[in-house]
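User: What would this chain look like folded?
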Amino acid sequence: MDYIVLAYSIYLPIAVALTIWVARTLHNNGKVFLVDIFHGQNELAVSVNKLLQVGFYLISLGFAIIKLEIVPGWKYDQVTGQNVQEQINNTQSMIEVLSYKLGSFILILGMMLFINLFLLLILRSGSKPRTQTTYIPPKDLAIKGV
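Assistant: Here's the prediction, encoded as structure tokens.
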């Protein structure tokens, strides 16, 4: 079997599994924030949470598929004095390419997780009901000299 095809068959299942795990974690733990943001409207919070999960799946899996292309790198060959494309023709080079691809995908998933958490915190702080303060005028408002 070709090493690039083997790398594809390893990369895709891991990327899909990571996406599902992160999306489920967001879905299960984000509901509490959304219920608070929507002031106890549970049905609305559940609906928005599901839509956020679908959006996360679409963005993450779309990015994983875009990153699917495995292109061998270039190296300088001192004998010929030219840049030569490296071949993925052994297990070591395949693992090195996979580690770079999966590592960058995991970093993107982590950034998306923190962006989602940050946005939920911003929405939560902006949705807190503000207490109505009443204006109490000072007692000695008499104008002197009039």
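The chain has one domain: 3-127. If you want, I can go into more detail on any region.
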